[in-house]
Amino acid sequence: xxxxxxxxxxxxxxxxxxxxxxxxxxxxxxxxxxxxxxxxxxxxxxxxxxxxxxxxxxxxxxxxxxxxxxxxxxxxxxxxxxxxxxxxxxxxxxxxxxxxxxxxxxxxxxxxxxxxxxxxxxxxxxxxxxxxxxxxxxxxxxxxxxxxxxxxxxxxxxxxxxxxxxxxxxxxxxxxxxxxxxxxxxxxxxxx
Length: 192
Known about the structure:
Blueprint: H1 2-6, E1 24-27, H2 46-61, E2 66-69, H3 81-91, E3 99-102, H4 108-119, E4 123-129, H5 133-142, E5 146-152, H6 169-190
Parallel strand pairs: 1-2, 1-4, 2-3, 4-5
């Protein structure tokens, strides 16, 4: 179910010159556990860790501005997601002046709306989960922003072999993510 979503866009390696033609790296928010008792790496769910780490590696290979959005996500949180991501990038060596934040947006559509004024006329590298890419690109294109998809957080191999077995928790999670994205695409197409 999820493979169809993930395979719509090619992987763009960090060594590729393709993304180096863009004018910025846009990283969509996922989530952050605002808990100082946890180690730094444990505060970032897999989707956030992979998106942010890949964007930081891209920046290290070719420094261009990094754009992040996201409002306060949890009821007891004190900082917007954009600020948490900015801290992540700064810890990994990206200068604060190279990180552009839009501390608004609680979902993809509102994050894109918050970033759109900053990205008008730019060609951007969009870093987000592979399964989320089709929906995210559509929101950016609706704002007139040219996008190079840079998918990460793949949940399926590029080459799969059929096999019989019992469902496991990881398979159930992949199915849940696929259903979430398909419902999001239906909403995007018919209910906005």
